[in-house]
Every structure is written in structure tokens, then in C-alpha cells.
Amino acid sequence: MPLPAPATPSRSSIAVLLGTQTLFNIGFYAVVPFLAVVLVQDFLLASTAVGLILGIRTFAQQGLFLAGGALADRFGARAMILIGCAVRAAGFLTLAASLRGSTPVLWLFILGTLLTGFGGALFSPGLNILVAAAQSARDRKEARQVRRATLFAWLSITGEIGAVTGPLVGSALWGWGFPTVAGFGAAFFAAIGLFLAATLRRPAQAGAQDSAQAAEGKPRGSLRQCLGDRQFLAFCVLHAADLLAYNQLYLAIPLELERQDLATQWLGPIFAWISIVTLCLQLPVSWLAARIGAAATLRLGYILSASGFAVLAFMPPTAFGDGSSPVRILCAVTLMTLGHLSVHPTALGLVPKFAGQHPTGSYFGLLSSCGGLAVLLGNLLFGWLLVQTRDSGAPSFAPWLVLIIPLLLASWLGARVVKLRQHRGAGA
What domain range includes position 121? Predict the structure, then answer.
């Protein structure tokens, strides 16, 4: 007896999913960018300790995506999204409470940062599951192959809108103190949770994971299958180079500004430029990716990111003028951003194809967790090499090879893994 096809998600249900990403990023970026300032000004910590705490926070989110995805497979995407909202709201409340007393409480602040990370590890895989189910249902509806931007490309755009808006909201509240900023974040995520508790319950959300899995007969608990899929494991390890590369916008780029004796105030315009590039070019890049295919898109995207780091590694500042302007860095950042716009939605769109008849939560989680581990280890190696080259007089391009070589390997081998999987799927 054939299994019924899952209902095609309505435009309103898709709008809810995409809008949720905007709301998540508004609440996140209204608070998190100010954590480093609080650790320095209120807790009087050195930059090394600040970096360690924020690094642990990032790993608590990215590193635990696998656990969040597995839980979403077990208990449902909707449940984990709502629990994740509650955990992040509790994290922001804990951050606010750490500064409410006469003496700041560091352990409470660290606990709050960990909770904010863990909350993201719970709800982000769930949102990816719902978007993937909606994309699959939309693809089935097409009577012919329509090459257009995927929902994951739109997810990138809506997320960027939130990433731009959030810091503006946080800055507007900063005058009332960080506890007010963190309190706003807690209330905002609590409101998001209530909103999603109502909207994700509607029948129009039939493209969601639970109904889609039931309709397709997918077995629950795909963690074992995910970890045993050697091709997908290889893809996750190779694609981790993208998250490591994109994370350098927060590490390598500020350090390069400092090395070039450029004011740190340039960071604002640089991040504004990244947002402009993302909002203006994500859809055209995704339309092109739909036409040339996933393997070619991954190969080109990884090379673009590697080219951005090659500019910083091998081209002196004087190649772009007198070396007193950030043009060289803007050129590198543009290439890195275009690379990320190419490969990130493409990789997310490939996850359901790798998963096949298994639930996608563990697969999304493993993809992100590998990236989080790469960021943790890669940043440590990159920072150590920076110190070594400065102290020993080694070639200044050496640290950048930590970022360039993984991207080139991903370009060469990642596309091959995807082609092999596509051929295997076609022959099945």
C-alpha cells in the first residue's frame, strides 16, 4: 500500500518558519555582542579569559547540535524548538541576575552564557528539520523541475535581517544597563515560544517534521544511521571548513585590522558590508547554484572562500594603495562571504538527500557539530601560529594556510562525495 504524500506547506506556514529565523537572530544579536564588553568592564577579565568564555559558549551551541538534532528526532522538532526558546530565555535571565546584586557574580554569568548556547543547540536543528520538510514538500508539488532559490537561501536572508536588527535593539537599550538588555532578550524569547506554540500547532504546518515522518514512514532515532554513514561523515568533516572560515570574521579579520594598524572602528562598516552582500546577493547566488548543481556550487564556493584568505596571506596591503585603507580586507571579506553564501544553503539542502528515509535531525546536528569542533580547534591553531610567526620570524602567510588548505580539500573532495552520493541515489 503506497504511503500518502505529505501535505504541501502553505505560504503562511513557510512565512512562519522564515520569520522565526529573523526573530531568533533579533533576540540573539540584541544581547550576545555585548557579552565581551560586560566581561571586561564589569568583571575586569583579561582578553584571554574573555575569549575562552565566549569560545566555550560557541562550542556549547555548535558542539551540542548533534544532541539537539537527535532529541528532535526522538521527541519532535516542535517540542525541541519550544524547549530551546525556554532554555535561552532562562539563560538571558541568568545573565541579567548575575549583575543585579551589589557584586557581579561571574559563575552565574558563565552559566547564563552556557544556557544561551544550549538553547540554540536545541531549537536550531528543529527549525532546520521543519524547513527541510517544507522544501521537500514544495519540491514534490512541482510538475517539472523548477530551478529557483531554496528555502534555506531564504532562511539565510531572514536570518541576516535579524542579525542586522538585533544589535540596533541592544544598543538602544544599553543606556539602561546590561541587565535590561538581557531581560529584554529573555522576554523576547519567551514571546517567541508562545507565538510558536500557537502557530506550529496549526494544521497548515503539515509540512513539519512529525507529520512528514509519519506520512513517509520514516523511522525515528536516526543517530546510529547518521554516525554510520561514512559518506555523510566525510562530507561533514570537509564542510566544517566553511564554518571555520566564516568564523574568522570575528577572529582573523579584527586581528588583521590591528596588524595593519587600522582602527577597530572599521569593523562596523565591514560587518555592514557583509550584511549588504548577503541581502543583495544570496538569492542570485542561490539561483545560479540551482542551475549549475550542488557539486559545482560547493567546488566554486570553497574556492571563493580560500581566495579571500589568499588575498590576506599573499597580497601586501600596498597592493591596494598606500596600505592605510581597508580595501584589501574588504576584498577578502567579500570573497569569503560569497563563498559562504554559495556553500551554506547548498550543504543544508543536501542533508535530507543524505538522510534518505531517516529523520534529518541527527544529520543536521552532526553537520553543525563538526563545524563547531573545527572552529574550536582551528582557532586555537590559527592563534598559536600567529604568535609563532611573530616571535620566530616565520613567513607571515603560514597561519592563513590553516584556513586555506581545508577549504581547498573541501573543494576537491567535498564535491566528489556529493557526486558519489547522487550517483548512488540515482542507481537505487
Answer: 1-217
